[in-house]
Design brief:
The protein is mostly helical and 195 residues long. The chain has a single domain, classed as Hypothetical protein af1432. Helix content is 70%, strand content 0%. 34% of the residues are buried.
Length: 195
């Protein structure tokens, strides 16, 4: 199976799963976020001159990294991994590359520490929303999810403070992400500070 075919098949599969299984309350962890993470992986990989094979596994990991939300909110990473593995095995994806995809999904766990450049790329890409021009809209969508799925409710002041602290302490790892994403992230931080 060619690179384009496996990526197209995966993208189509995930689109269908999200369309069928995600509720209207999944306002942040959706196909838009998934595509943004994939695009950020491509952008960073190009800037860092990452080879085509590594890029393919990164893109697949980006496509699958949040698909577990179709089954559960807490612990979605385990389900994302399981769904990715089943899909890739079904498509006879090479075992070593399949393991790389699963490993990259593991790197998106909040507490995971990326150790090499490709791991750093997916970690940075998963936080591309921090540098979004629609950052306030994105965190509003996340706030809705937390309220619905985690029973966590915040007033405006608490929510902006929580996100301000997170944004202030977050650091992109790769020089490419710092160059590409940091200026907008700083603008978002200033906006949050005002709020």
């Amino acid at each position: 199976m060619t690179k384009n075919t496996i990526l197209q098949e995966a993208e189509s599969h995930i689109h269908q799963l999200f369309e069928r299984e995600l509720t209207d309350d999944h306002r942040f962890h959706d196909i838009v976020h998934t595509q943004a993470v994939r695009n950020a992986c491509k952008q960073l990989a190009q800037k860092l001159e990452i080879g085509a094979e590594d890029l393919e596994t990164l893109e697949l990991a980006a496509l699958f990294h949040d698909v577990g939300y179709t089954l559960t909110y807490s612990g979605h990473e385990v389900e994302s991994r399981r769904i990715a593995e089943a899909f890739l095995k079904e498509h006879q994806y090479p075992a070593a590359k399949l393991q790389a995809v699963l490993h990259y999904i593991d790197v998106t766990y909040p507490g995971a520490h990326p150790e090499n450049i490709t791991e750093q790329i997916i970690k940075d890409a998963d936080y591309v929303h921090l540098a979004s021009e629609n950052y306030l809209g994105a965190i509003e969508s996340l706030r809705h999810e937390w309220e619905v799925f985690l029973d966590k409710t915040y007033n405006d002041s608490e929510w902006y403070r929580l996100n301000y602290d997170f944004l202030k302490n977050h650091q992109y790892i790769t020089p490419a992400a710092r160059e590409l994403f940091e200026p907008q992230k700083e603008a978002n931080l200033k906006q949050l500070k005002k709020l």
